[in-house]
Amino acid sequence: MPLALLALAIGAFGIGTTEFVIMGLLPEVAAGYGVSIPTAGLLVTGYALGVVLGAPLMTVLGTRVPRKRMLMLLMGLFVVGNVLSALAPAFGVMLAGRVVASLAHGAFFGIGAVVAAGLVAPERRAGAIAMMFTGLTVANVVGVPLGTLIGQHLGWRVTFLIVAALGVLGLLGIARLVPELPRPEGVRIRHELAAFRNVQVLLAMAMTVFGFGGVFAAITYITPMLTNVAGFADTSVTWLLVLFGLGMVAGNLVGGRFADRALMPMLYVSLGALALVLAAFTLTAHSKAGAAVTVALIGALGFATVPPLQKRVLDQASGAPTLASAVNIGAFNLGNALAAWLGGLVISAGLGWTAPNWVGAALAASALVLALVSGALERRTVRRAASGSRVVAGAAPSPATAPVHH
């Protein structure tokens, strides 16, 4: 694998850490600004909405900029946002810093996926995309627990300064290792927007929203579920989230490997298994061992869908993949926000701490149905093309080429 992928993975590691570490530091941040924890939760919501809006916005603004330079600008924006968060004198300023950092998120992964895919042979593209996303998954195993620990002992501001330093490292890595990539000739906004008229692109993005939403329906409320239902101590939750992160790393790499060989079958298996595991979590959550295994499986199956879904969008939007790729990153965050909201609704309705697992199972099953529809449409298109070519090949010869019988 090219060294340039390492630079992209470092940037992804920094972005993944800043996105998720805030969840572990909410009590400290809330106490620091004298606000309630639900108010501090706006730092999570604001970031997710920033990704959804920033992904298309930053990509559109960057269509006239070479991709390497755009990646460097995005990492610069990420560094500024995290420094602002670390030094913010008031809660509103920190929220602004989070939004600034989030604007870089979707476009970095969207453009980064296109760059990663372009660095290797076509048959290795999903593996290259997975290598970049490894930075995001490893952030959940190393960056988030470490960042939480540092924030609890040295202050949350130190955590965000360290994340900003990771951004600088990613920026320098991109500057040094990513080759100069010319801006694709003839790419216009109208050309990029045309990808959204392709039903397969829209189906892939809907799969992303529902499939990844299934994961976050359960994971958003994992702490009360594990402590109130499974009986874990509060201090054990960090290590259970490390298990979730290890599952993410494994699933991401497996998804990348198999998506290059059999993309749609990989989606059928991972989405189907994810729906079953989430449904089973309503039962396994009552046992410590069962809950621990299930948390790791949710991470693995959820992230096994990421490289194939991202590659599916790139393949179907070929010719104008950059905006579609970035919007699909926004779709992951839209899934997160939707699932967290639906999970909160069923808990508020008094259905219990495990109720979000049923929501997650339903979302993952919906994504599986969409994948089956997408596969069926693709097979029908291939059959039509094949029958059309047979008709042309079997057509009667024209008078000019017809054999002459004497």
From TrEMBL:
Residues 4-382 form the Major facilitator superfamily (MFS) profile domain. One of its GO terms (molecular function) is transmembrane transporter activity. Keywords: Cell membrane, Membrane, Transmembrane, Transmembrane helix. It is a multi-pass membrane protein. One of its GO terms (cellular component) is plasma membrane. This is MFS transporter. It comes from Streptomyces katrae. It is found in: Cell membrane. The chain crosses the membrane at residues 30-58, 70-93, 99-121, 128-150, 156-178, 199-224, 236-254, 266-283, 289-309, 330-352, 358-377.
